[in-house]
Write a structure and sequence with these properties.
Order of helices and strands: HEEEHEHHEHEEE
Strand content: 15-25%
Structural class: alpha+beta
Number of helices: 5
Distance between the termini: 55 Å
């Protein structure tokens, strides 16, 4: 079984229907304090595959739904630069599947895989009416982190952002800014006052 041959075939089969690979790396930590937070973490839970990035103030969880991406992106840690290269190669109009495959190989050659990623699921709020309310709060956040949060939210067919989809949620008594849909869970935690 040769992955490169399969990738070439996938590129031909996929044709016009395109599912984009989400570049979640703007949510990776850049301080170096916790090396595992500088990486994109891919894992499978309940039969679904997810890519996660967090810097402990923001978090994005993207559900990978494309069958080819599910097959070729294995569970593990991905260097942020290599993840971005993979996204660019996959998302090109004429997919560059060789560059995509090369970036995956290079990632596993340079990225340690023995990290333990934090149990991020515990901070994602339950999506229930009592935990979610409209965006009306005095939460304070850093502007760059808020911009990254806004940029990560999928836009409609006209490139518009629907602000009413952004909510304030509560988890363990703490409010945070939250967006979710079928494939994304994105949250932004407030700065301490």
């Amino acid at each position: 079984y040769n992955r490169n041959e399969s990738l070439v075939q996938v590129g031909r089969i996929r044709g016009g229907s395109k599912i984009y690979m989400k570049d979640v790396t703007s949510f990776c930590d850049k301080t170096g304090i916790k090396p595992e937070l500088e990486l994109v973490y891919v894992h499978t839970k309940n039969g679904k595959k997810y890519a996660v990035a967090t810097d402990a103030f923001r978090l994005i969880e993207w559900k990978i739904t494309d069958d080819a991406l599910i097959e070729f992106i294995t569970d593990g840690f991905y260097n942020a630069k290599k993840w971005t290269e993979m996204c660019k190669a996959w998302n090109k109009k004429n997919q560059d599947l060789k560059s995509f495959s090369d970036a995956i190989k290079q990632n596993f050659a340079i990225t340690k895989q023995d990290y333990i990623y934090p149990d991020y699921v515990q901070i994602i709020p339950d999506i229930t009416p009592e935990n979610i309310k409209d965006f009306n709060s005095s939460i304070c956040v850093r502007d760059k982190q808020f911009i990254d949060f806004i940029n990560a939210i999928p836009k409609d067919n006209f490139g518009r952002l629907k602000f009413w989809d952004i909510k304030i949620c509560t988890k363990n008594g703490k409010e945070m800014i939250f967006y979710w849909d079928d494939t994304h869970k994105i949250l932004l935690m407030p700065m301490e006052k």
